[in-house]
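>> received
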Amino acid sequence: MDIEKLVNEVTQDVQSLLKGSRECKVSGIGPREVPAKLEHSLLSPDVNLETILAECANARRYSVAAVCVAPYYVPMVKEALSGCGVKICAAIGFPHGCMSSVAKLVEAIDCIKNGADELDVALNILAVKSGNIAEARKDLEQITYAARGKTVIKAVFEHSVYSDAEKKNVLEMMDACRADYVKIQNVLSGKGADVADIQYVKKFLGADVKIKIDGGVKTMAKALELIDAGADRIGLTATVAISKEAEAAR
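>> returned
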């Protein structure tokens, strides 16, 4: 066997792959695969129906994972996304989760009936901060029970408002309620999405826990960094910009 020849052939093959690739893979996926992990967030209080429909068209074009909207828009988005694979995610109890258990449950059930495929469920932060984790758990249990087999549940972990002890209690509660995802949210703090936050959740719930994270993700590089750390979904508003970058990478 000519070892030198073999080494040269392998080296040439590797160099050819690197030269021909525009993806710069980080975690087994490249930029063109990123849109399938993005959730297009349309939760601004001043977003109107015209904008919602235009952004649904963008979501279709780039085949993102989901469009996330307020419950009011779920029926309209259901119609706008009919026939494509983009999921409809409704924000339940957004952003504080501090309405009554009955009100939150009714909101969730109504969204399911109106066509929501996924629910981002805000926990009752006031109950957690008051030391009443059982009441917060009751909220989530009721919704996960009502949604089981019908809708994906992403339990919102607004981590920046909790103490270390509260964080642990909340994550254990989410796990016990069998939420499909932990959604690491940064709405109330304005904190940016961080790899350390993903690692923190996985430390408590294990490497296989599904995670959605948001918080000012504006670039492809940041999206890949979070995915590399274990994020399964990323919530953001810069969906189109990143999807265009992914398209250019083809």
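>> The radius of gyration is 20 Å.
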